[in-house]
Write a structure and sequence with these properties.
This protein is mainly α. It has two helices and no strands. It has a domain of 61 residues.
Length: 90
Amino acid sequence: MPQPKQNKEEKPEKKQIIRGLWFLFNVGWYVALSIVIPTAIGVWLDTPERFNSRPLYSLIGFSLGTILAAYGLYRMFKQFLAEQKDDEKK
């Protein structure tokens, strides 16, 4: 009786899957907090009790948060790719 052909591709190890999911989890929180915190500070500064300059500081906070998120994503992705290359060499 012929045996069924087995898939020659190895299934990803559970550790690699968890590492990828953890990376995505970290990226999501990093981006969210990088944008929300500076924007919230900007909204707080724009209140009538502070500088009453709505929407100036809100936009500055959002812009700063977006720049921080983009730079952080670049660094995180660069580190993730380096770790992947190291794992392939092993």
